[in-house]
Structures are given as C-alpha cells and as structure tokens.
Amino acid sequence: MTAETELRTAQASDIPACGKAMYEAFRDIAERHNFTPDFPSPEVAGGLLNSLLEAPDVDAFVAEEDGKIVGSIFVSRRSPVGGISIVTVDPGIQNRSIGRRLMLHGMECLTEQGHTRQQLIQAGYHSRSLCLYAKLGFIASDLLSNMYGGPVKEVFPGRTVRQAEDRDAEACNALCRKVHGFDRAGEVAASIAQGTASVVESDGKITGYTTGVGFVGHGVGESNDDLKAMIASVDEFMGPGVLIPTTNGELFRWCLEKGLRVSQQLTLMDTAPEGPPDGVYWPSVLC
C-alpha cells in the first residue's frame, strides 16, 4: 500500500534530509545521462538549501511520507517575477506525481503572493522535467550553456570592476529594469550584504552588475564588454560554472576563445516570456 504524501512548510531540521534527497536525485539523473552531478556531496547540497531557507522572501515546502522527507521545493519572491529555485524528488520514489504536486503547490504559493509570472531553469538533458514544466504552463525562453574553466584574464579599457556597496543598489536595480523590465532587488540587496556582488563602471556610471559570477549569481549589463569584464575579474567561478545564454553568440564565442568549456545545456523557462532583453545578461540557476 502506497503511503500518503503530505506537503508542509520546511523547517531547519529538514535540511539534512532535503540535502541528501537533492544530492541523490541530481546525481542519479546526471549520471544516467553521462553528465557530472552539480553537487559533490549531500552536505554541499544541504548548505545551499539552508542558505535559501534562511533567505528573506524564499518559501520552502517538503513532501513527507511516514515521517520521511521524499521531496522539496524552494520558491523565490525576491523579484516581481517569482522563481522556482529548486524542486527535488527522492529518486527511489519517482514516477508518482510527487514532483507535479510540489510544483503546483509552489506555483500556487507564488501566485497568491502576486507573482503570477514565474521562471525556472531546467537541465537540458532531462526531457521529462521539460515536459512536466511545459504542461504546467512554462515556455522555453532561452537556451543556456553552463560554462566552466578559467580564470579568464583580460583588461577592458574604460571599465572598472569593483565590489558593490549599498549605495549602488538602486543603480543596479534600474539597470535590471532597463534590461529585463523588472528588477531583482531582493537578490541584489542580499548579495551586497554577503559581499558577492560587484559592479562595472564606465564613463562615471554603473553599466553592469552581478550578484556573483557563477552558478547561483546573475549578471546584467548594457553591453557584452560589461559582462566580459565581470567574468574576467574573478579568479574562479562560484560553483560549477556560469550560465551563458547560448543565443548571445558574441559572448558565447568569447568564452570559448578564452578557454571556457561547456559542461551542459539548460533551458530558461517562463510562464509569460516577453521580448528579448534590452541589453545583455546571464541568469542564476536559482531564478
């Protein structure tokens, strides 16, 4: 007899079990497609989930059966566009629509808070998740390449990259609104406080910013040189690479010419995609 699955709000005590399930689920699907897992251990996965649980404007829910955590979802309200940051189902009990229930629950939570437009990032090799998200109303809006390697060392005359400060937040948010039509003020504020954010200055104004050059940080710029300058400013990426829009041919080729390699392709999905951005960007896997 199949145990009844209950959904409830996640607690700090759930994180070790959630991290273990997340690590095993991501490892299982990656290795079945001959890809390297995104997380090297349950502890690393749990550390990321714990940081999300503690972050403001992030909601987390778990699926539980007979007292055992079998899945989880983390959703972000840090932007006007809601984000499905992470959804995980224990690989031992998949194919029972638990992932679908978690998704519907997370999407409803975001909608109730006014985030009717929502985004997520999907692993390109996982066609089943692509189909599930499409059935739930998500539309593929961009193709991404997870690029790794480095460091990239190049100087961009007229551009200076420095650590972001509190006084830079509004300029960063204004730039994001110009490029995307909305800002990610919550992520910007958190990354400035954590010391991971940086900005690009050109001709006395901020022309680009990032919450962190890597898997869990997003970047926005007026031009590709702004993004290149930020990528070239770090000695290593945060996490397993940075998500470069493959559709940005100039930036993608530059990354390849600088020795970066592609580990996998992913799909940015959106319930209400708009036209192309008025500028350039890379997204965070956490949306």
Describe this structure as you would to a colleague:
It is a single chain. The protein folds into two domains: 6-116, Aminopeptidase; 147-282, Aminopeptidase (3-Layer(aba) Sandwich), CATH 3.40.630. The chain has helices at residues 15-32, 42-54, 98-112, 127-135, 169-180, 185-194, 224-232, 249-257; strands at 6-9, 58-65, 68-76, 82-89, 118-123, 139-148, 159-163, 198-202, 205-210, 219-221, 242-245, 261-270, 280-282. It has 287 residues and is of the alpha+beta class. The protein has eight helices and 13 strands. 47% of the residues are buried. Helices cover 33% and strands 28% of the residues. The protein is globular, with a radius of gyration of 19 Å. The longest helix has 18 residues, at 15-32.
